[in-house]
Amino acid sequence: MEETNYLVISGMHCAACSARIEKVVSKIDGVAEINVNLTTEKGRVTLNTNQTSMAAIISKINKIGFEAKEIDKRDNQSNHQKQKEIKILQWKFIVSALLTFPLAWAMFAHFNWASSMYVPTLLTNPFFQLAITIPIQFIIGFPFYERAWKAIKGGSANMDVLVVLSTSAAFFYSHYITFVSFSVPSPGHPTLYFETSAFIITFILLGKLLEAKTKLRTTEAVKKLYQLQTKTATLYKDGQEFKAPVDQLSPGNILIVRPGEKVPIDGRVIKGNSTIDESLLTGESIPVEKNADKSVYAGTVNQNGLLTIEITKRNSETVLSQIIDVVEEAQASKAPIQQIADRVTGVFVPIVIVIACMPLVAWYTDFLEMPFNEALEKVIAVLIVACPCALGLATPTSIMIGSGRAAQLGILFKEGKHLELLGNCKTLILDKTGTLTKGFPHITDIYVDHFSENAFLETIAAVENDIEHPVAKAIVNKAKAKMHAIPKASQVVTLPGYGVQAYVHGKKVKIANARYFIKNDHPLPQKAYQLMTQMEAEGKTVMIAFINSRFAGIVAVADDMKTSSATAISRLKQLGFDISMLTGDNTSASKVIAKKAGIDNYQAEVSPQDKAASITQLQQNGSTVLMAGDGINDAPSLAVSDVGAVIGTGSDIAIESGDVTIIKGDLNRLVDAILISKKTMRNIKQNLFWAFLYNIIMIPFAMIGVLAPWLAGAAMALSSVSVVLNALRLKTVPL
């Protein structure tokens, strides 16, 4: 049996670390997929439990030098742990900086321009420098040695190996010179590199501290979503009010929500009137009116009236819970562009070690006419400056910020790859009902033959009662408004692309569009045909009912276009999209909506299978296709398209149906999603360019001696922080 589990992994410091974990774990029999996110320090593993176990995977990760433990997908405790780690890192940096300060002061004694500066003799004493460097190198720096040893034992080389090689070379060479100068005194100051070792460790700690603090800012979007959740609710039972934990509530429980309180869990209003602020959930700033039978969602804020609600979902099933799950899933996944960085970092550290040894080889073979200590400086500088930290942070950090910002606007990306693919799409296929239109059709006309209107409405409502389609809902809502109860239908069968059939009170009832009855040789009375033609010309959707193979009546339904659709279509055209509308509705109704929206290409009376076939044909012709539908009857089209976007209607949010979900049914949000995709990918490319350029430029500078080792440490820290700061710009960049 295949299952997906989640890990928190500590001890990762660069892209080589995450790449190593993925490489090792993916070789374990039974592991189908593993994704490790350097930014969040979390992993996602899909495994076959018949072949391996999480215990075996965790043991393997620990053996190669990291610490992994299994967590619940919804675990939000890692932020508290990170804050503790930041405090420890802060203290380490402060102590290291205080111990490094005397070495930095003594370093001025080596410079002619600082010859007039007073430097206490004690600070230049080699044994004093040795004494204060030892705690930096072996106490504060001990975790570097520990992790480097584990990495080497596991057959890999990471950032810790580079740090240990460089600082140890500086420290032990200086240690050697100290005792040589003591036994064989010479005039002047011996050339020591204790300050180099101390500077490197101090700068790396500073870089890691700044990086950790800026990383925490990248998780703000998810933290805000978690903060929307409430832990307790006011339960109303047997005429009494009780405070109850939200996790223990069940569908059917009755809650009281007072003005100013958050709605604790998804439910349905059974009493009261109010307006609710849903902005943090959907990105819409205008409060929504709520009264009897209206749905309310966890995390939204009741503004001005007391509401009594009936719970409809468990806490783990609420829209807010689904949103958090989808956002975290997107942030944990990888975009295809990250494969570039992964391939490079997999071999980067060993190559750097070889490059770093070149100055020593050149010195040893007399190719370089310079002292050994200068060649050693170059080795140390190369080892430090080449660390691929920035490369590993370039993609996941931007993905986190981009998907987080999208979530705050009510846009959910299921995976990081969809965030990348969306911006590459140039062909858009739109559904009509619920996408361009409001998705809440209302009955405008009823024509019956040999039946009373109420009996006819009751019968067709029974057939449509369990059908999740806007036209079906319009019929059922009309029936509920006119009668107390709707009879139960049996043997309900959908007719894909046409309608539905069932038995009601023993009578066979078929409700479908005209195409179905024409195709199956069921002629319509002349008057009915004329009415149908007239209604369709007015842009209405017409459904025909036959009872026991006899014509029974016509229902005409109208669905108004959303006010935002025309503006959104105009924006999409400006972005260069080739737009088409494919709908199962009749030609006349489709023509009216297409004209209002500004869409030139449209096809009507298209079945779900034909929609999918049309998209496949476009893909075969080289198009990257974005399909936008309401997630109910567009499943085949959403599945075959390169990116499927579900446009929610606000009452039934089908988050699991598509690659991208627009919670509120506003097409302008789809345009925003495309812009976020484009800007995120531009940001990733900037980060990768900077990370690659940094190494390409800095390694040669370090090799020729332009970059001192302590400056290399500062530059390495700066590169990582700059990548994260650049990604954070996505939070405020205009759409």
TrEMBL record:
It is found in: Cell membrane; Endomembrane system. The keyword DNA damage does not apply. PROSITE patterns: ATPASE_E1_E2, HMA_1, HMA_2. It comes from the Bacteria. NCBIfam families: ATPase-IB1_Cu, ATPase-IB_hvy, ATPase_P-type. This is P-type Cu(+) transporter. Belongs to the cation transport ATPase (P-type) (TC 3.A.3) family. Type IB subfamily. Keywords: ATP-binding, Cell membrane, Copper, Copper transport, Ion transport, Membrane, Metal-binding, Nucleotide-binding, Phosphoprotein, Translocase, Transmembrane, Transmembrane helix, Transport. The chain crosses the membrane at residues 93-114, 126-145, 157-179, 191-210, 344-364, 379-401, 687-704. Residues 3-69 form the HMA domain. Its main location: membrane. It is a multi-pass membrane protein. It catalyses: Cu(+)(in) + ATP + H2O = Cu(+)(out) + ADP + phosphate + H(+). Its EC number is 7.2.2.8. It comes from Lentibacillus kimchii.
